[in-house]
Amino acid sequence: MNAIEVHNLYHQYNGRILYADLNFSIPEGTICGLLGKNGQGKTTLVNILMGFLKPTSGQCLVLGEDSHDLSPVVRSRIGLLHEGHLAYEFMTISQTEKFYRGCYVNWDPEIFFHLIGKMGLPHDQKVATLSCGQRSQVVLGVIMAQNPDLLILDDYSMGLDVGYRRLFLDVLHDFAALGGKTILVTSHILQDLEQLVETMIFLDSGGIMQIGLDDFMSSFHKYVFHNAKELKLLKDDVVSGFEQRGGQSTLYSFCDLGQVQRHLISLGVHAEKLSKVEMTLEDGFIGLMGKY
Amino acid sequence: MLYSLLFKEWLKLKRYFAAVLLLNCGICLEIFFNIRQQMYAEHAEMVWYQAIHIHSLLYQDIRYVPLFTGLVLATAQFVPEMMGRRFRLSLHLPVSRSLMLFFSLLSGVMLYLIICGSTSLCIYLTLQKYFPIEVAQSSLSTMVSWVLAGLIAYFGCASVLLEQSWPRRVFLLLVFVTLVKMLYAGFGYGWLAPALPALVLLAPLAMFSVFDSARRFQDKGV
User: Fold this and answer.
1) What is the CATH number of domain A2-215?
2) Which of A89, A270, B3, B156 registers the highest number of CB atoms within 10 A of its CB?
3) What pLDDT was estimated at residue B222?
């Protein structure tokens, strides 16, 4: 069964079409990363899935219900992390726990206080006075103590230093290890996602590409070669992305080395020392989506 | 769940509630001392003439305080929800949007009524001390229209704060300002008394405007 299903999603904002006909699904028990450059509609899509925005047309099902009309029971099964680690800043840590304890039947205070305990903060400290990283732990504690079946995390890494990011990832890994949990996550820190996600959805110009992380990393390749001339290679069936820095050119492609070599020759490009090199997810993202 | 919702609203409101309650008490005390001073300094006939014959309200200073109280309580409740669009946190709670909002408004209205009820009682007791009971009773019917104006202002302020579209905000503002002005249009004792039963029944309907703003917030939550 799918935790999230999007059918024929069409949405426009201020006359600009963000999605023309978006279709994808995220099976239950998987961890999916939603990737895209700024302005491609990631947050808008997350807002639609979270039920805070009504799409122009199309259907979004979250745990089997229309995302814009989720029943309280289904909402209790979804943990949401809003961009900027949104929390009630007028509450103290213990008031936050007391408030949410009364809202969720499956609330586990031990999980909440375990995460808070890692920071050694007094429980009567106001959320407004916490640093971004500390606030992220409070928000994470709130979400985890709900014991949700589906997590939707909108840019969890925003404003976090490496320590808090790692802490966040550790908790997400432990959560995923419980089994049957679905996570949809967006982040600009791709090396984090590389350690976490199983599938990825690339969002670009209103279209998407959904692919498994392992499939992507094994089928998408990064090639480098030397060429003294200034080159401009446009996207085609072989070239997915191209960049040149100094005398070194980098080409991204789903094709193997032989195909790329033949293609470059056919284009009249002298590719000296053409070779396949190791690629990170961030490289792959740039290769597929471009820099800007 | 309901306890949690009321708890959250109390956390937002408690300081502002205490502040406006103090303000109301302060003005009630001022009115009490003013009337007492007048009774000592002037002839009783003069005070009677002013109060009864020329309808000079001796508790005029409290006139706009319920309005201020309503605006302060609505601001205290809904500005924190709008900052960073935190209202999304409330909308995701496992409770229906209408019920969540109803209890938010209920907590604000209850505190508002506690303040206005206390104030009205203070004014009533003050007048009862120096005037016949009929004068004290007429203060209640006079102040109900001001209390209703404050209630309408409370709902209006909540509605405008939750509203996302500027043209609608301006429209709501115009509607609510007109309603409030209407309730403040007259002077003298109980000038709106004949219409009060109907107005008391109609005023809570302004709550639906808040529900509609919340619905639009969710529909256009970019």
Assistant:
1) 3.40.50.300
2) B156
3) 41
Cα dist from A26 to A61, A67, A162, A183, B3, whole Å: 10, 14, 28, 9, 36
**Chain segment A185-230, per-residue pLDDT in tens:** 998 888 888 888 999 999 887 778 899 999 999 999 999 998 777 8
**Does ipTM come in above 0.90?**
no
Taking residues A22-27, what's their average pLDDT? 93
B111 in helix, strand or coil? helix
Helix (H) or strand (E) holding A71: none
Interfacial B residues in 38-57 facing A (CB < 8 Å): none
Neighbours of A227 (CB within 10 A): 17
CB-CB under 8 Å, B219 with A54: yes
A50/B contact by beta carbon, under 8 A: yes
| Averaged pLDDT score across all residues of chain B | 92
**Domain ranges for chain A:** 2-215, 220-289
- pTM here is 0.88
* Token pair belonging to A98: 């007391």
Please give the sequence-ordered ranges of beta strands (E in DSSP) within chain A, or none if there are none.
2-13, 16-27, 31-36, 57-62, 65-66, 78-81, 150-154, 182-186, 199-204, 207-212, 221-226, 241-245, 248-253, 272-277
- Non-local (6+) Cβ contacts of A5 within 8 A are A25, A26, A59, A60, A61
Closest CA to A3 of A77, A57, A80: A77
Q: Is A182 on the interface with B (CB under 8 A)?
A: no
Residues of chain A contacting B80 with CB distance shorter than 8 Å? 88-90
The greatest distance separating any two alpha carbons of chain A, rounded to the nearest whole angstrom, comes to: 69
Nearest CA in chain B to A75: B94
* CA-based torsion, B38, B39, B41, B46: positive or negative: positive
- Would you state the pLDDT for residue A212? 92
Domain limits of chain B? 2-220
According to DSSP, the β-strands at A221-226 and A207-212 are unpaired
